[in-house]
Design a protein that fits this description.
By secondary structure, the protein is mainly α. It has one domain. Helix content is about 65%, strand content about 5%. It contains 13 helices and 4 strands. The chain has helices spanning about 45-65, 75-85, 85-115, 120-135, 140-155, 160-190, 200-215, 215-225, 235-255, 265-285, 290-300, 310-325, 330-355; strands at about 1-5, 10-15, 115, 365. The protein has a two-stranded antiparallel ribbon. A hairpin with a 5-residue loop joins strand 1 and strand 2 (about 10-15). The longest helix is centred in the middle third of the chain and has 32 residues, at about 160-190. The two termini are about 30 Å apart.
């Protein structure tokens, strides 16, 4: 039985009745109110920051190109650069596009679960804006969360469903991130391709995090139920956190049970972006093992938790991990810089423009009624 509801733009929609224990069904009176202009992400000076970031990396690469032949200790690196193939630069750019396609895949799957259908251009625009906010505004991804939530509310979702949708996207992407660290670290350790400190130890920590997250969901649900009747705006906001996390994990579980292939987009986001670093190494004449590069990339991304604008913490992390896996120093520096140029700064140009227009509503966005399909039964 479906209940009549009204979306944030005032359009009448049919919304299937939620689970009786659905934490999102207990909404506050103001959760359907559209976001105000003051809630929009602050983007002042973003294009200027993008231009400065691109200019700095390009100047460093050009300076190396001009100075390396005349500096003795860079002679070996210069020879490797000359042996490189510029075709790998094209490969790197293509891989970055594939990486974003994976994230858009996840984004569309989770918005459909929230009964919101968006045109393809709008999906790309919101994803680019969210990634630009994450990578340029730093603060451990808080900028991307805020901008994506704001955009979804502008397209018709209420505050809690928008928060749950973003939570589901983050859950899918970062479950894959942690799973890839666990699997890649284990493979490298078993084949003796790295010290335990950069293989099996991070793999063990990642596996432990996954186990704790899986076992902790009942606790989240109980906490959401216990805090659902809090009074006061701040108290209600804090009480909504466990409910949103619980709903995010529920949506991820549902996609897995339904065998929705879109969930693979989370792995594609990381693996293809790591492939950019691998291609950058080949562009400068090095031929590292692809699994080692994947692990160096994943561990380097942990530095993104540091609140350093422009992802500079990631650059340092990437460089350190590449050196730990035996990549020559000069090539590691150049490849990490090129990877950040292609992965962060080039997408930041359209991303900054999309972020500046994050509040624009799409006339083709609409709320839909979805059929709750039972999970497929195992064979036999």
């Amino acid at each position: 039985m479906a209940d009549d509801a009204t979306d944030a733009r005032g359009a009448s929609v049919k919304r299937p009745a939620g689970r009786s224990s659905d934490p999102l069904s207990r909404r506050d009176d103001d959760s359907d109110a559209p976001p105000t202009a003051s809630e929009a992400p602050q983007t002042a000076g973003l294009l200027r920051r993008v231009g400065i970031g691109i200019a700095v990396i390009v100047l460093v690469l050009v300076a190396f190109w001009l100075l390396a032949p005349h500096v003795g200790f860079l002679e070996e690196t210069w020879m490797k650069v000359r042996e490189g193939d510029p075709v790998w630069l094209v490969v790197a750019v293509v891989l970055e596009v594939v990486s974003f396609m994976g994230y858009v895949w996840v984004f569309n799957a989770t918005t459909r679960r929230s009964r919101l259908r968006l045109p393809r251009f709008t999906s790309w625009r919101i994803v680019l804006a969210g990634v630009a906010a994450t990578r340029l505004l730093a603060t451990a991804g808080a900028g991307g969360i805020a901008s994506t939530t704001f955009a979804l509310r502008r397209q018709g979702l209420d505050a809690r469903h928008a928060g749950a949708t973003v939570a589901a996207q983050i859950a899918i992407v970062y479950v894959w991130f942690i799973l890839l660290i666990a699997v890649t670290g284990l493979v490298l350790f078993l084949f003796g391709r790295g010290h335990a400190a950069i293989t099996i130890i991070p793999a063990g920590i990642a596996a432990l995090i996954l186990v704790v997250a899986f076992l902790g969901r009942p606790g989240l649900r109980k906490l959401a139920d216990a805090s659902s009747h809090r009074e006061g705006k701040i108290a209600r906001a804090l009480a909504a956190v466990p409910a949103i996390l619980d709903e995010g994990i529920h949506n991820v579980s549902r996609l897995v049970r339904e065998r929705d292939v879109a969930i693979v987009g989370g792995a594609l986001w990381w693996v293809a972006d790591a492939g950019v670093l691998w291609a950058a190494c080949h562009a400068f004449g090095a031929s590292p093992h692809v699994v080692e590069i994947l692990m160096a990339y994943l561990l380097g991304q942990v530095a993104n938790l540091l609140p350093i604008p422009g992802g500079l913490g990631v650059e340092a992390g990437l460089l350190g991990m590449m050196l730990a896996f035996g990549i020559p120093g000069g090539v590691a520096v150049l490849a990490s810089l090129l990877q950040r140029l292609i992965s962060t700064w080039l997408p930041a140009v359209p991303g900054a423009l999309a972020l500046a227009a994050i509040g624009r509503q799409s006339p083709d966005a609409r709320m839909i009624e979805i059929e709750e399909r039972p999970p497929p039964r195992p064979a036999g």
